[in-house]
């Protein structure tokens, strides 16, 4: 982790994302999870765990026996099936399996639903019920984490996939494992802007991609875009070669990435202000040009240029430099009042 680096460099590290799946700590990797979470809390760090829960509660989980008993299953049961539309299962799952982890110090959950939207793998036998949408609702209204739905004691928060229109009410959007490429970076910008049209203003992307190490130039541009995106979250695969620590990159790239990460931290009051405005009005932090200039043809042509709140215009560079000139040829649009 090298937390001291982030702390000393004033990066504003806020969360730690721990992957992958299960409901029981690996005591080889985390011999003292309570101590680890206490250390995080002392350093003002929030914690989330990644859940792949479609396999239900397996025999090796700490809460397996208690879940078997609570569900009234035979003692010889091999696992507790995942049944998100069974109120009895949902209550037991949230109370018996997740609540102890929350009490230990887990602040929110990163859900990783990979079983599609229909079919037997979803554990849902009700027609026309989108499992992604439903699971987001269940976790957002978890009474053992946030309190009563009509009077929560904490503001609910979770990271998960988009469940369709109306699902903006619940989760920060996890856009999935991204292949690091210039085309992926370029698409993320316009994709994120279009989502604001349906009130979904909080896509969280894997900055730098996920599946393999990004080249230095690409990673630098991704960090720059990340500084002016809804959520700044760096993520990678578990490969030792897939490194996202900016200080392992060439010094010139490191300096630029460092500058933009510090800039992101300095903008937190600004971001928080317009996140509140988004809550009150539905107008997202990232706003396509046509939100401000609907009558300008350019607003629909420059679809990777946008407003970051009402006072900052951003135009991320999503292409490599020209090998001959060593510059990027990028056209941007300037509003009439600025000319």
UniProtKB/TrEMBL annotation:
Cited SUPFAM superfamilies: (Trans)glycosidases, Glycosyl hydrolase domain
Presence of keyword Hydrolase: yes
Listed GO MF terms: alpha-glucosidase activity
Pfam families: Glyco_hydro_31_2nd, Glyco_hydro_31_3rd
Superkingdom of this protein's organism: Eukaryota
GO BP terms, alphabetized: carbohydrate metabolic process; N-glycan processing
Domain Glycosyl hydrolase family 31 C-terminal: 282-338
Keyword Glycoprotein tagged: no
Domain Glycoside hydrolase family 31 TIM barrel: 17-273
Keywords associated with the record: Glycosidase, Hydrolase
InterPro entries (UniProt xref): GH, Glyco_hydro_31_C, Glyco_hydro_31_TIM
Family according to the record: Belongs to the glycosyl hydrolase 31 family.
UniProt name for this protein: Glycoside hydrolase family 31 N-terminal domain-containing protein
Source organism of the structure: Amphimedon queenslandica
């Amino acid at each position: 982790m090298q937390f001291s680096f982030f702390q000393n460099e004033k990066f504003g590290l806020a969360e730690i994302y721990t992957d992958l799946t299960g409901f029981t700590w690996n005591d080889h990797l985390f011999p003292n999870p309570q101590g680890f979470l206490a250390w995080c809390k002392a350093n003002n760090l929030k914690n989330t765990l990644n859940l792949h829960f479609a396999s239900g509660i397996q025999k090796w989980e700490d809460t397996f026996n208690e879940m078997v008993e609570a569900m009234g299953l035979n003692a010889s049961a091999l696992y507790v099936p995942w049944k998100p539309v069974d109120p009895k299962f949902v209550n037991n799952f949230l109370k018996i399996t997740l609540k102890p982890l929350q009490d230990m110090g887990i602040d929110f959950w990163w859900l990783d639903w990979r079983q599609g939207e229909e079919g037997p793998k979803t554990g849902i036998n009700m027609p026309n019920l989108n499992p992604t949408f439903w699971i987001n609702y269940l976790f957002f209204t978890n009474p053992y984490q946030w309190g009563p739905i009509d009077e929560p004691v904490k503001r609910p928060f979770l990271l998960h996939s988009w469940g369709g229109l109306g699902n903006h009410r619940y989760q920060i959007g996890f856009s999935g494992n991204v292949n690091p490429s210039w085309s992926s970076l370029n698409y993320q910008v316009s994709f994120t802007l279009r989502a604001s049209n349906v009130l979904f203003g909080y896509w969280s992307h894997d900055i730098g991609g996920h599946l393999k190490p990004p080249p230095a130039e690409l990673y630098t541009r991704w960090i720059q875009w990340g500084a002016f995106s809804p959520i700044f979250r760096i993520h990678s695969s578990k490969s030792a070669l897939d490194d996202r620590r900016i200080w392992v990159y060439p010094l010139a790239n490191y300096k630029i990435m460092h500058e933009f990460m510090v800039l992101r931290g300095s903008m937190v009051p600004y971001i928080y202000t317009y996140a509140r405005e988004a809550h009150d009005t539905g107008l997202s932090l990232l706003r396509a040009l046509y939100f401000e200039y609907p009558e300008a043809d350019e607003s629909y042509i420059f679809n990777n240029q946008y407003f970051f709140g009402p006072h900052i215009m951003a135009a991320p560079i999503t292409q490599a430099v020209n090998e001959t000139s060593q510059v990027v040829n990028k056209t941007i649009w300037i509003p009439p009042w600025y000319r």
